[in-house]
Design brief:
The chain is mainly α and 68 residues long. 82% of the residues lie in helices and 0% in strands. It has one domain. The protein has helices spanning 2-11, 14-34, 39-44, 46-64. The longest helix has 21 residues, at 14-34. It is globular. The mean pLDDT is 77.
Amino acid sequence: MELAELQDAEVGDGTTSVVIVAAELLKRANDLVRNKIHPTSIISGRALHQFVFQLLVTLEAVCLGTFS
């Protein structure tokens, strides 16, 4: 809930954005688990870091209108 409120304060649409990002994180984490990567490794490991970085790059591109 705090994340949604923070997002709402920044861009005016908190809950929807946070739910979409959270759903995508869960989807990607599930893909990693299906590939036999232990949840502990996902949480603390490089796979999650790489995914979050790519997600931020994509979100920035969408916000700037340069996503293709």
